[in-house]
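G., the chain you wanted modeled:
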Amino acid sequence: MNKKAVVIKGDGVGPELVDAMIAVTNAAGTNVEFIQCEAGATWWEAHGGDSLIPEETWNLLDSADACFKGPTTTPGGAGSPKSVAVSIRQRYNLYANVRPIKTFPNTKKPLGDVDLVCVREGTEGLYVGKELQLTDDVYIAIRRITRSQSNRIAKYAFEEAKSRGWKTIVPIHKSNILKLTCGTFLEEVEKVSKDYPDIDVWEYHIDNIAQQLIKNPQIFDHSILLSTNLFMDVISEECSALVGSIGLIYSANIGDDFAMFEPAHGSAPKYAHQDKVNPTATILAGAWMLDYLGEKDPSKAIFDAVERVIFKGEHTTYDMGGNAKLSQMTDAIIADLK
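Predicted structure as tokens:
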């Protein structure tokens, strides 16, 4: 029986990027059934409500094997709904947000080659979205950290290191200031580490690692960078710059029995309908989803084809120094697959 993946095309450049991903996965011979549905700011602006995700989409997600989410826009301002990604992560307990950060051949290397993975707890922290007004002058945001989720994300990180044959976990925190929340997170990392005696633990304060990633990023090669939700949201964005373009960064949100795959970048509405942006992150997120759903060969074929197209440099987008359109780079990847 074929696996089913719900596909949210998203906002801004999302629809054209998702079309590229579907075209590439079809060219690679996928048997996954893609079920397209609505979610995001464009849908919400037309329909309103307290969620960016309509009930019909939730029903489809409940019966799917995985989700692919194109970039979506999150409205700002008090009273507006939480993001599509956060809503799905929290509903399905997709606690591990994972972003591989690896330099592609023949691309800009702002600070040299890097090869690491960012692992971010995806369900709690400041992203629980609880804010209070205490007085006309005082507003507070609640940062919820639990031992259970800290333990779970730590185990994921150590298992990720083990599966890759890597020897270092880098927990990122600020426990000298946030003694309870970061302190609890760090305690759980230390507990889990006892089951992995061959893996070293390098603790870094959030401010220090922000500097070290610029000063000498190679010291973190073959390491798993691990942190709470907001801290790793920021640090993984900094790490994305190390490979020259966030348009190259694909990501997954993984739980015990469900996963959502997406490019790490936003919806870039100013570039919508211009056939301009880099499709790499979206295509590789789709390839990763195929791997998750058991289609190892088509997944690897896509990863290899993308790397060859980038290496040749003849059909790459502006952010990689080329002048190809989104569609031209997509066509080059499909041609390589064939």
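The radius of gyration is 20 Å.

Shout if anything looks off.
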